[in-house]
Predict the 3D structure of the following.
Amino acid sequence: MSRSTAQILNEPIACFHQTNDDGISWEYIVDEICRLPWEAVSSDEILWVAQAYYYFSIQFRENLEIALQLYPNDQNLLQLFREECDTDNLSPWPQIVNVGERVNHDEFMRRLLTLQPIEGTERIAAAGLEYLECTRRYDDLTRAMSIVSYEDGGLSKIFSAFLQAPDWSGQAQQAFKHFLDKHLVFDNDPTAGHGALCRHLKPDGRVAPLWRAFKNVLLVSVPVLSTAADVPPISSNKARAALPSSTAFAG
């Protein structure tokens, strides 16, 4: 049954699950995200997606840093880090990065969100900050393994789904599209892409709750996505943190 926008906005985000008790795979959750009605997302709502993804990009960088702490001599992970952090591979882009300027990819996302006014940021910031709090509770190995699920197919599918939105009018929207297009190139090379650089870590079901958390942040951030009849409710009888009543956009 579909839920109203009011129901979505007033519902705590169920983003933290200690275990993957339901047995649902991370690949299944990725497919659930891809089946959301991305073609119904407006140009303004694309920036809500971008803000939700900004918080994801922070935990991505943190998880990659953890992977390197666990495997400091892994040359493939070091190469992946060089292509995700302090890198110029997204430059240049007007008013975000100059030619040859090196930034973390989450910093690129932070800057694009400042290019134009965005309504509804307080709601998304609250969900995003709770999401970060939740992801930081997971053990280091799970967080390290999540990188493979992100880079080796998961994010490529989701970025392609994001790009089904029909209208990318606007400076920030175009910058986000640039980010997505470039990452599809980074990730999809079968031998030298980002997936190939981390595939040896072999993720398992422990990473599924991290994907579930991301899906729930997207649902809270972009209520139109929850109008799909086959999307399960984000409420849960498992432990969850309460949303802050008001949180300013970080950055």
Summary: Residues 43-70 form the longest helix (28 residues).
